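Here is my example:
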Amino acid sequence: MSDHEYILPALVNIANFKEQVWKSYFVTHRDAFENLVTKAHNAAERKKEIEEAARKERTALQEVIDIFNDCFFVPCEIKVINFVSVILNEGKIPKLCFTFKQGNETQDVEKRCFA
């Protein structure tokens, strides 16, 4: 510290000092930072595209659910809440939601499906 005494006043406010260090780093490495931001933006866009494609996927589970909902006269309907994450293998166990209907009222009840 004796060789860099000019830093001492900045250390009075550590949070501000950290902020200034980060800002100077971003200015010094502007190209790398902009590249990172661009890649993060592109990855987010690609993730949206993949999730949209997953939403359009038809699986055996979805076909079974559709058959159940179409064939049986029960006061409930079944749907998979985490369908996209199951398709993308982020959530391995489908979470089923039973929507019970009585008149104009509906009530959702979540259950885990153990396969």
